[in-house]
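Module 6 notes. Inverse folding takes a fixed backbone as the condition and produces residue identities as the prediction. Think of it as a translation problem where the source language is geometry and the target language is the twenty amino acids. Below is one complete input and output pair. Work through it position by position during the lab.
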């Protein structure tokens, strides 16, 4: 996407310097024209591969131009657009209108506008994107999630085909740690579909691989993820057996807390309390301050669930640790996590205060990647609290297209979980729009699968973008090697 956006940014920066006196209407028209031009460029690149996707992008571009003309008729920029003095790619406005109208008429005449299954179309796009070249670790995970989505739709043959492709991709992963994660991801999808036998076979292979990982931090991370999958299967005995082998304090505390939660759900509170105590002991040995504040915050939430009187003490400790973090990104992330904890404990005022502080800290983060990750966590907390308007304000601040789309998809899922289905459909549509700008094919496929999972068959499905905008293997992010510590697992 950089190769598309940087020339545009340079051009419009020059325009800005030459016309600082532009009105708000002029700026709005310029932005709509810029978006339309960008979509036309993407459409031209895509046309050779799949005409229907190029045509969709062009319809999106025309929508922006017509919006500019309708909303800002008095702007000189709009006048130039109507008169053909502003071009969108190779076209004037009227030429572009005629081109898109002709395409739509041709589609209607050929019957292509007949009734379509939108969910099947979305999953079909995801399957096309997931099959593109890229790191097998990413590909395996996306293919497994796609297989599970087809299985839930009742298309078992297609689901089995994608599971087979996922397993092939996972077997080609060279790094043992990432191969364990890929196998565990597939096992998790099988568990969700009540296919425990297949899940168990994959986890046995993952366990053998994990035992051979040389570095203790990676080995503990792999073992913790495998144990988590066994907990999801309800196989507590196997999970606890693996947990005993997890040595690294952070991962040990993390998986003990997960096991404690699973035992609470199973009605085994005494055993859950024993695991909680072990997790607290492990947390005392965590040296990294960022990991430590995360675990202490989770311990506070779990203590409250178990009516453990240590909950306030742990929460205060987490606050002290958060304040002591040296960089703004770590502080903002810790405050957002504390806000989530406070919200779960029905300490709403405290949660709101922590969120405001996290937002303020996030505004001082210079690195866009870290800033967006913090904003995603803030948005997730606000969504859990049901403050959807504020969530959208935060999402608008996110600059990385993938993170913006993921946040909107997560928001759609939160609304669906809260049985606010019409709102969920609306946010799913916005996530699809945001996915247009995600270059990496496997990341984009993952977003589409999430969107498909949010759409309820009881309601009309929004028209989602056919997001096969120019993406290639070179744009795929390569996962880190064993030379760097992996990101901790999400809870």
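Target side of the pair, the amino acids:
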């Amino acid at each position: 996407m950089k190769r598309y956006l940087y020339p545009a940014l340079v051009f419009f920066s020059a325009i800005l310097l030459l016309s600082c006196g532009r009105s708000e209407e002029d700026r709005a028209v310029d932005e709509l024209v810029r978006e339309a031009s960008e979509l036309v460029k993407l459409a031209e690149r895509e046309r050779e591969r799949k005409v229907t996707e190029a045509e969709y992008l062009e319809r999106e571009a025309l929508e922006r131009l017509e919006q500019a003309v309708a909303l800002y008729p008095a702007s000189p920029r709009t006048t130039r657009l109507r008169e053909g003095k502003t071009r969108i790619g190779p076209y004037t406005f009227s030429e572009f209108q005629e081109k898109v109208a002709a395409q739509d008429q041709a589609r209607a005449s050929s019957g292509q506008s007949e009734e379509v299954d939108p969910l099947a179309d979305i999953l079909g796009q995801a399957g096309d994107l997931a099959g593109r070249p890229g790191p097998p670790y990413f590909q395996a995970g996306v293919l497994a999630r796609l297989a599970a989505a087809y299985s839930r739709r009742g298309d078992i043959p297609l689901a089995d085909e994608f599971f087979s492709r996922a397993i092939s991709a996972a077997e080609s992963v060279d790094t043992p740690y990432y191969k364990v994660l890929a196998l565990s991801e597939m096992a998790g999808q099988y568990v969700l579909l009540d296919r425990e036998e297949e899940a168990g076979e994959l986890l046995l292979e993952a366990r053998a691989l994990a035992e051979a990982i040389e570095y203790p931090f990676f080995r503990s991370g792999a073992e913790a993820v495998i144990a988590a999958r066994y907990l999801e299967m309800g196989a507590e005995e196997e999970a606890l057996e693996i947990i005993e082998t997890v040595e690294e304090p952070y991962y040990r505390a993390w998986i003990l807390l997960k096991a404690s939660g699973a035992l609470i759900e199973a009605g085994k509170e005494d055993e859950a309390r024993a695991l909680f105590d072990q997790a607290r002991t492990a947390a005392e040995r965590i040296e990294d301050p960022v990991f430590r504040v995360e675990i202490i915050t989770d311990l506070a939430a779990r203590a409250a669930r178990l009516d453990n009187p240590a909950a306030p003490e742990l929460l205060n400790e987490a606050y002290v640790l958060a304040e002591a973090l040296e960089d703004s990104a770590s502080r903002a992330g810790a405050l957002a996590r504390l806000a989530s904890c406070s919200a779960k404990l029905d300490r709403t005022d405290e949660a709101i205060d922590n969120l405001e502080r996290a937002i303020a800290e996030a505004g001082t983060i210079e690195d866009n990647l870290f800033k967006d990750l913090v904003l995603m966590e803030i948005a997730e907390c606000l969504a859990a609290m049901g403050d959807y308007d504020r969530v959208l304000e935060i999402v608008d601040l996110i600059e990385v297209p993938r993170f913006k789309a993921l946040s909107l998809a997560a928001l759609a899922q939160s609304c669906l979980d809260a049985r606010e289905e019409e709102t969920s459909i609306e946010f799913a549509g916005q996530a699809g729009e945001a996915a247009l700008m995600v270059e990496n094919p496997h990341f984009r496929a993952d977003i589409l699968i999430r969107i498909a999972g949010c759409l309820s068959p009881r309601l009309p499905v929004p028209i989602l973008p056919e997001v096969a905008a120019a993406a290639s293997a070179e744009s795929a992010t390569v996962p880190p090697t064993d030379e760097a510590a992996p990101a901790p697992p999400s809870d």
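Reference fact for the lab report: The first helix runs from residue 2 to 18.
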